[in-house]
Amino acid sequence: MKSSARLVVRPAGPIDLPAIHVLAERAVGAVLPEYYTAAQLSAGRSTQLYHVETELIEDGTYYVLEVDGVLVGGSGWTARGTFHPPGSTSSHGLSVDPDTATMRATYVDPRWAHRGFGRLLAQVTETAATASGYQRFEAMCTPPSESLRLSMGYRVAERLQVPVLDGVTWLAALMRKERQS
């Protein structure tokens, strides 16, 4: 008989940030090479494009998922309404509407992939934003996160080439969703 795994979703704290960054590196390294070139991945790594912003931790809006005490995923949201790639002041189409919550940085350790954890974390962040009074959501998505968000009722608002470093861009989809009452 298999034992039951203990799942815990909790707000991340400053002490979690180094482990979250390692998790993000591992997730990106496992999934994104199918979609981006080595030069694009290198530019993302050197600019820390996919590191979780400390503001999410400080705001209490980044959550981690642990299975039996092991960090296996994380996801967050912000009311700040912006997405600024490194070295940029452009918000790349994301709303600055104070009624829109921006979903951010959903990562799952590849050793724990395909178990529903990405969806669970995305639902947690939407629920937390909804509990804070938000009914509209948006996200800047890479191709694999785009398919997750589509399955959750988001629509592609715009496809963008997001500048990363020295003329290197990443293809991304700006996605939006209105919560149905």
TrEMBL record:
UniProt xrefs under PROSITE patterns: GNAT
Entry keywords, A to Z: Transferase
Gene Ontology molecular functions: acyltransferase activity, transferring groups other than amino-acyl groups
The UniProt record lists the keyword Transferase: yes
Alphabetized InterPro entries for the sequence: Acyl_CoA_acyltransferase (IPR016181), GNAT_dom (IPR000182)
Stored Pfam families: Acetyltransf_1
All copies of domain N-acetyltransferase, residue ranges: 7-180
Protein name: GNAT family N-acetyltransferase
